[in-house]
Design goal:
This protein is mainly α and 550 residues long. The protein has helices spanning 4-31, 36-42, 49-60, 63-76, 81-105, 110-117, 120-154, 158-207, 210-219, 240-256, 259-266, 271-284, 287-304, 329-337, 343-377, 383-403, 405-408, 414-438, 444-467, 478-499, 531-548, and strands spanning 314-316, 322-324. It has a single domain, classed as Sodium/glucose cotransporter, CATH 1.20.1730.
Length: 550
């Protein structure tokens, strides 16, 4: 367990974030000239690109990433870093092709966008799926990872610790709204990155450098841990083609069509800020491989050389074979590699990831519940009632997320469990957004039926593969399963669009690109801040990085 000084640093950090969140939200809401609902849910649409980029990163990088990416680094090396770097390409898609429609249509939620492009039924379904995914993916998994960390560091019961942290986060999120969320997320991103850098430097120093680690991997025939592009038949189940085919399905849903993420963009001051913000986040996404995944790889090398004691993580499987439960590898590194006094900063970084993820998800849930559910049945509802409904929804969602923790804890790898669920949720949503934005003939009824049938297919495949693991479906890697489900949804929607012809409304007529190049006609800012220049620069950097770690 960590010392008293480090514990005090961690507790003070939580209290400071609570105070900043409450002060920021209440002060700015009192001074906003716009409607109370717009101020609460979208920060009065006043966010600029640095804050959007930092908030996007903070909402994405949670305690799950700090814990699970270190775990994946220990188990499979740099492989899962592909998820972080592939995200940059989908953020470019968000900036170039999706942002203009979101800003131009003036929507408050992404289900609202689907109603304007398709119909009301599509909006209702996406609202339901978005709330459910926010509860499971953004809150429950974060709480699970946070609970594992806090139990190891403080010796406190997992559920007790996460409830305390989550309640504190819920308080400033519910009271302060999106502005409080974004401001605290910006602070937490800096703290989180600082903590991750400290861990990376400590692990690197303990190992004696990169060459020493490579030598250890070579001695144990584990040089493939340095590769991100694995061959066919790789034991990880993630060969290079599975990443290239499957990740875009997950990534477009997560970065371009998930309310929890895109809400930061919807609060942008104007289109240029909304476009540059995601690109800024794309550049920041380069860092996780080096500061989240790499420490886990160093931990593996340190373990092999006897410089890291994993006795506390060793268990015995059903066959009596000793194995390492690598879920707790990051917290063990904090205890053994970080000097006293600095460990408190690392714990603060972990708490930053946990709190920012929960706050972002709760704010998005409250927005969806207010605009897409409550307002439908109470169209005359005042702003005050909308905000109140959102707060109640956030509270209920928080309770549900806690109840799901024992079920999700059954996954051996938190990161793989998270992406396994996303792989079965994302395909129909990615399909209707892509075809809706790029294909004129995508009809309302085709989108509605694709969402229904595609979601049912995803749930059915997920249940069957888990209950019948020995079946053919049980052996399909989740990334390839996402791609197969996506192909099914595309074929389904295209066929249905020819059966049920599109009938555009005045709103939907302007919510698809006549050609892919139409989105680039906006000149953007002059100089290095131009979104076209930044997009091209980011593409070149990412291609070079993948080539180096191929």
């Amino acid at each position: 367990m960590i010392g008293s000084v480090d514990a005090i640093v961690s507790i003070l950090y939580v209290l400071v974030i609570l105070a900043i969140g409450l002060y920021t939200g209440l002060r700015h809401r009192a001074g906003d000239k716009g409607s109370e609902a717009s101020s609460y849910f979208l920060a009065g649409k006043s966010l600029k690109w640095p804050m959007i980029g930092l908030a996007l990163f903070a909402t994405n990088i949670s305690c799950v990433h700090l814990v699970s990416l270190a775990q994946s680094g220990f188990d499979t090396g740099l492989l899962n870093g592909t998820f972080e770097w592939m995200a940059s390409f989908t953020l470019i898609l968000l900036a170039l092709f999706f942002v203009p429609f979101y800003i131009k249509s003036g929507v408050s939620t992404l289900p609202d966008f689907l109603e304007k492009r398709y119909n009301r039924a599509s909006r209702d379904w996406l609202a339901f799926i978005s709330i459910l995914s926010a509860i499971i993916i953004h809150i429950s998994f974060s709480l699970l990872a946070g609970g594992i960390v806090l139990q190891t560091l403080f010796g406190v019961n997992m559920y007790t610790s996460v409830i305390i942290i989550a309640i504190i986060t819920t308080i400033y999120t519910v009271i302060g709204g999106l502005r409080a969320v974004v401001v605290t997320e910006s602070i937490q991103t800096v703290v989180l990155l600082a903590g991750a850098v400290i861990m990376s430097v400590a692990a690197y120093h303990k190992m004696g450098g990169w060459d020493d680690m490579v030598q250890v991997l070579q001695q144990h025939n584990e040089l493939n841990k340095l590769s991100m592009m694995r061959p066919h038949g790789d034991a990880s189940g993630l060969p290079w083609y599975a990443v290239l085919l499957g990740y875009p399905v997950l990534g477009i849903w997560y970065w371009c069509a998930d309310q929890t993420i895109v809400q930061r963009v919807l609060g942008a001051k104007d289109e240029n800020h909304a476009r540059v913000g995601p690109l800024f986040c794309g550049f920041i996404k380069i860092l996780p491989v080096f500061i989240f995944v790499m420490p886990g790889l160093f931990a593996y090398a340190l373990y092999q050389t006897g410089h890291l004691d994993l006795a506390g993580l060793k268990t015995v499987d059903a066959a009596g074979k000793e194995m390492v439960n690598s879920k707790g590898i990051y917290t063990l590194m904090i205890l053994q590699l970080i000097p006293k006094g600095l460990a408190g900063v690392l714990v603060a970084a972990l708490l930053s990831g946990l709190m920012s993820q929960i706050s972002g998800a709760l704010n998005s849930i409250s927005t969806l519940a207010s605009y897409d559910i409550y307002k439908r049945y109470k169209p005359e509802a005042s702003d005050a009632k909308l905000v109140r409904a959102g707060k109640i929804a956030a509270g209920i969602s928080f309770v549900i997320s806690l109840l799901l923790l024992p079920l999700l804890n059954n996954y051996e790898s938190i990161f793989n469990g998270l992406n396994d669920i996303i792989a079965h949720i994302a395909p129909p949503i990615t399909c209707v957004f892509l075809l809706g934005v790029f294909w004129k003939r995508a009809s309302a009824l085709s989108a509605q039926l694709t969402l229904y049938i595609g979601s049912a297919a995803g749930v059915g495949v997920f249940i069957y593969s888990k209950t019948m693991p020995a079946s053919a479906l049980g052996h399909v890697p989740f990334m390839m399963m996402a791609f197969y489900l996506f192909l099914f949804c595309v074929l389904l929607q295209v066929a249905l669009s020819y059966i049920y012809k599109v009938q555009h409304t005045p709103q939907s007529e302007v919510l698809y690109w006549k050609s892919p190049f139409e989105s680039l006609r906006s000149p953007g800012w002059a100089g290095f801040g131009n979104y076209k220049f930044l997009s091209m620069l980011l593409i070149l950097i990412m291609v070079a990085l993948f080539w180096v770690f191929r």
